[in-house]
Structures are given as C-alpha cells and as structure tokens.
Amino acid sequence: MSMRHGTDRLHRWERNPILTLQDVPFRCNTVFNGTPVKVDGEYYLLIRIEGQQGYSFFALARSGDGLHFEMEKSPCMMPATREPWRSWEENGIEDPRLTMIDGEYYIMYTACSGYGHYIALAKTEDFHHYERIAIISEPGNKDGVLFPEKINGLYARLDRPFGYGIGAMWISYSPDLKHWGKSDYVCGPRPRFWDQHRIGASAPPIRTDKGWLEIYHGVKMTSAGPIYRIGAIMLDLENPAVVVGRCLEPLLSPRTNYERVGDVGNVCFACGAIVEDDGEVKVYYGAADTSICVALTTMDELIDSATECEDETCILH
Ligand code: BMA
C-alpha cells in the first residue's frame, strides 16, 4: 500500500498527493500544510489555501479513512475583517495546527501583518464557527503548536522566535491560553546536519512513555535555496524544555516530483499527525507549498527515530 523512496522512514501513500488544486471547489492558487484531527472515526483536515490574490486562509476537508478527502464548498476561516483582529491578519493566516483539549479544538496559526508574523490562537467546537482567542506572541514568531494537556498546571506551547536570524524551538506556558510566559529555549539547528539552518515545531506534541514526541521541520540552506525536511525529537515529559533524544537522519526528504516542483520546491512541511489505535501513524504534510500528502509509519518507528541520538553533541541543547 505504501511506496518507498530512498530509505526514508516515513512511507508515502502510493496515491499521493491527497489534495491538489483540482480538488478545491473554488478558485485559488495552491492548497498545502494541513492539520488533522480524528473525531468519532471521521478525519478533519484544516488546510491552508493561498488565494489568487496572494494571501492565505483556511478551508476544511473531511474523510472516512484519513486517505481520501473531500473539501467543503467554501473556505471556513478567512483573515479577520473586524478589529481588534483585522490589523493583525491583514496579510493572511497561515499554517494551522489543531490540538484537542477537553472537547474543544484549538487552532494555533500564523497571523501575518505589516509588522511581521505572529502566533495566534482560535478555537472551534463544530468546525463551523471559529472564535479567535488572542494574538499570543510579538512579531518574528511562527510554528506555534499547543500541547494536548497542561504540564504542571499550565498550558504549554512550542514556537519559533527568530532571534539574531536563528530559527530555534522554544517553549512557553500559560494559565489561560491568553497570557504566555516562562519562555525557555528547547533546541536549535545543528551545524553539518540536514537541519543546520533553521528548525521549528511541526505537529502538536504526542505523549509517549519515552517523552513528548515532536515531529519538527529542519531546513538546510543550499546554493539552490532551502530544503525542508521532517524530523523527530523527544522532550522530557515533566519539563519539555529538556531534550532527551533527537533523530540523526530526517524522517522524510523531498524526492518525488510533487515534493520537488511547486511554488516553493524541495519542501516537505508537516502540520500534524493522527495516531491510530493499532499504533499506525499518518503524518500529513504540504509538498512544495502546492499540494497535501500523507505518509505512513508507526509509533515505534517514530520513537526509534526520536531517540536515535541521546548524546549532547547531536542533541545540541
Ligand atoms: C515556512 C512556512 C511554511 C512553508 C515553508 C516552505 O517558513 O511559511 O508555510 O510551507 O516555509 O515555503
């Protein structure tokens, strides 16, 4: 059922991509970077669409098996048109990440304005009504992912502030999802490695016996531009600012035509994963900022990857 390319640990579904421009029932430029949840056996994929005007918004696709998706007739969340949100989102909303807590679906996303990129938080109960909660960072931050439970009594998120031009993973905490602080460095790019230029969280963290499993993206800069790959890292359960393991090799690298060619070529960019009851994992990723794909693996394989290296020199904490 799956197809191997090279020696990647994630196995592309043989009928990738699962969503392309042809599947979108309204005019737009591209469809990419989708974040999944599974509710009562149904899969919801909240996806980023870039309109022909050039800015992004969100739409919803549904599926009974997590592989074949059908899109809703119109977008579900547009950049806000009213204050106090309008001016923070006037350049679009990007890269949603869904986390379910106590029956509510929280969407951490990138809000774009003339000041830059911020992390914003919204929620929905029914995937029809979307309520904005707060802009939760200053400009220069993106890749926010919310943990699925409180840690030591506080909500927690990973994000990627852009200090001195270095994109690294940080953690922050909040008592109410609106006010955030206690920020701490988690980990950064690794010189020489495939993730040497920049890294950021991709999927909301997954609880395992070994720690919080984080599927992240790493960028290598080349003379032909950046290459975005998918990797795994393991964070301490009690204090996720502590890295307990990290992959040496990426889980997935752009190799197929649909990952190599598009609006932004050489991009595999995950925004979420579904862990099935039998341990199978479906990782959803945008390919070349032009389509949405799924790759299959198991929890054992992901944990194995995220603990490939437990030595400080390659964790680089
Ligand atoms: C990142 C984000 C993603 C995008 C990726 C590759 O910085 O903007 O939305 O998929 O770049 O272009």
Major sheet strand order: 1-2-23-22-21
Low-confidence stretches: none
Class from helix and strand fractions: mainly beta
- Radius of gyration based on Cα positions: 18 Å
- CATH homologous superfamily identity: Glycosyl hydrolase domain, family 43
How many structural domains in the coordinates? 1
Determine the mean pLDDT.
95
Strand content: over 45%
CATH class: Mainly Beta
Level of helix content?
A: under 10%
Count of alpha and pi helical runs = 3
The number of distinct β-strands equals 23
Characterize the overall form: globular
Q: How far apart, in Å, are the first and last alpha carbons?
A: 38 Å
Task: Find the CATH topology.
Answer: Tachylectin-2, Chain A
CATH architecture term: 5 Propeller
Q: What composes the largest sheet?
A: 5 strands, antiparallel
Heterogens? beta-D-mannopyranose
- Compressed to H and E, one letter per element, the order equals EEEEEEEEEEEEEEEEEEEEHEEEHH
Write the topology of this structure.
Blueprint: E1 2-3, E2 11-13, E3 30-39, E4 42-50, E5 56-63, E6 70-71, E7 93-101, E8 104-113, E9 116-124, E10 131-135, E11 141-146, E12 155-163, E13 166-167, E14 169-174, E15 181-187, E16 198-201, E17 206-208, E18 211-222, E19 225-235, E20 243-246, H1 257-260, E21 268-275, E22 280-287, E23 291-298, H2 299-306, H3 312-315
